[in-house]
Every structure is written in structure tokens, then in C-alpha cells.
């Protein structure tokens, strides 16, 4: 299949399963991921496909997300079981393959790890992680304008700033922190210190 038609197909399929606001965000992430791919010599197609699909499991119920994981041998951690929205990455990666017919492990990983990140992310994983946070439709949060600029200057540094902001936000709001988010943050803090 022509890649262009493939993106069109993915967009159409996701649009059916997301409310209008979420789909607006999806389009913002596709667009921003494409721009970052240009900047960091990543495949524009892969960035767009991962951007379109990153939240494909967002507009389904917690029960369904848990069922997708439990039925298919996807490991659910304790914190994910208590906060099943955290599973939309894992469930989304699964759906990307089974329902949307994607065949690329790097795209699956970019979808799976887009909320918490992980240590030593690929360029595509970092692009989706960052695009998700900075896309034009994102609600203004402190530091966002700086991170938007930073994203096009130093991708690792943008990843780190996003993680620091997210952890601050979770500490202030009393949200339960996924150890994965902390592990990722520590990794990129250490990487920045060594650079
Ligand atoms: O799905 P989106 O809203 O587009 O974005 P996302 O998948 O990055 O999810 C964003 C939310 O995830 C945001 O409110 C912060 C939250 N988050 C990130 N890391 C953690 C977390 N929430 C909890 N409870 N624990 C985490 O470690
Ligand atoms: Fe998400
Ligand atoms: Fe998102």
C-alpha cells in the first residue's frame, strides 16, 4: 500500500474512535511529530503514523483497556491496575498491530512508552513523547513556550524538562507516580549531567 494512503486510512480509522477534542489533539501530535522528524532526521512517515496512533486506546473504558491487556498476556503493573489510563500506551501499541495493521516495532514502542517514557528511548520514541506535550492544541502550562523552543534545539533536554514538569505536577496534585516516569527522569537527568 502507498504510504500516503496508509496514513489516510489510519487517520480515518482513529477519527471514528475518538471524540472531536481528542482527534484534534491527535492531528496536532501528527503534525508536530512530522516537524520534529524533519529536524532530527527521523522517518516522517513513522513519526506521522505513531502520532496518529499514540492515543488510539485513549477513548475506551478502563475495563476494556484492562481486558485488552489481561486477555493478551500484556503485563499490567500494580500502579497501572490502580490507574488504568496509564495503560493506554500498552493497549494502544497492541491495537496498532492487531487492529490498525502496523508492523513496525519502533512505532509500537513509541506508542507504548509515550506517557511515562523509558530509559534510552529511540529518536522516534522521544519525538512522540515530546510532540504529545507540545502540540499546538495543548493547554498552556508553566514552561510550555520554553519547552516548545527547546524541542527543536535539544530533544533530550526537552524530554527531561517535560518529565520534571510532569513529576512536579503529580507531586502537587497528589497523583500516583509510576516508577517508570521516575526512572526515565533520572536517566535523562544523568545523561544531561554527563553531556
Ligand atoms: O494521553 P494524553 O493526555 O495526550 O497524554 P499522556 O499520555 O502523556 O498522558 C498525560 C497524563 O499522564 C498527564 O496528566 C500526566 C500523566 N502521567 C504521566 N506520568 C504519570 C502520569 N500520571 C500518573 N498518575 N503517574 C505517572 O507516572
Ligand atoms: Fe496519551
Ligand atoms: Fe496524547
Quick rundown:
The protein has 195 residues and is mainly alpha-helical.
List the helices and strands and how they pair.
Blueprint: H1 3-17, H2 20-39, H3 44-53, H4 62-71, H5 78-82, H6 88-98, H7 105-112, H8 123-134, H9 144-151, H10 155-173, H11 179-194
Bound molecules: 2'-deoxyguanosine-5'-diphosphate and fe (iii) ion (FE) (2 copies).
2'-deoxyguanosine-5'-diphosphate (DGI) binds at residues 25, 55, 58, 83, 114-116, 132, 166, 170, 175-178, 181.
Verbal overview:
It is a single chain. This protein is an all-alpha fold. Helices cover 69% and strands 0% of the residues. It contains eleven helices and no strands. The chain is globular and about 40 Å long. The structure holds 2'-deoxyguanosine-5'-diphosphate and fe (iii) ion (FE) (2 copies). 2'-deoxyguanosine-5'-diphosphate (DGI) binds at residues 25, 55, 58, 83, 114-116, 132, 166, 170, 175-178, 181.
